[in-house]
Amino acid sequence: MNLIDTHAHVYVDEFEADTTEILQxxxxxGVSKILMPAIDRxxxxxxxxxxxxxxxxxxSMMGLHxxxxxxxxxxxxxxxxxxxxxxxxxxxxxxxxxxYWDKTxxxxxxxxxxxxxxxxxQYDIPVSIHSRSAMDECIEIVAxxxxxxxxxxxxxxxxxxxxxxxxxxxxxxxxxxxxxxFKNSGLDKAIANIPIKNMVLETDAPYLAPVPFRGxxxxxxxxxYVVEKLSSIFSLGIDEVANETTANAExxxxxxxxxxx
Length: 261
Ligand SMILES: [Zn+2]
Description:
By secondary structure, the protein is an alpha/beta fold. The protein is built from 9 helices and 8 strands.
């Protein structure tokens, strides 16, 4: 099985004590690439260091997470922008809107999202979008920037079928992770009529571990439980789900056997 985890923060403190084991388990479970979204300046160093240590497996994105958009967000954006200009990154991420925890910086979050979507267009790379309690707002802003060139993933998609259809109509992918295995999440029904060609896999490690590890620390090796759940939703073989979603991720991000762009 060849899998790509399109969204995992394997560089954060939760993994510090056993990073080597986590990455070994990922490889043993067939994970050939782990795409790592950036958060903010506090973790740029550890993010880039992990990529430098395991360049065949761990690949960095660059961007400012909406939950890190505060008073100083312009400085944060400047730091991310400088890094983006200094070398190649696989994607701009993670970026978006999060109105769940705190609505103090809504205006600033919107501004940062617009700017970072423009970076993706400028560098012609995909985006990884974080959207919490702000799905329709995120879709609307992406639509404003979609000039037929913007591409990416609504990471940890947990919306309804109407939103899923709007996202794929915009040429975007749905990032499917552990939530799909949660009882009563409703995600299985929301995506049941969406073609699998519009989906990529992710863990969002260390968060949102799939059943049977719900509530525990998540890690890329658990991707297989997401594959199993998708296999039952779509009545497809395990290998078919793995091959299809991996091909989607390779094409979108230009990794693996796929040719970049
Ligand atoms: Zn994330």
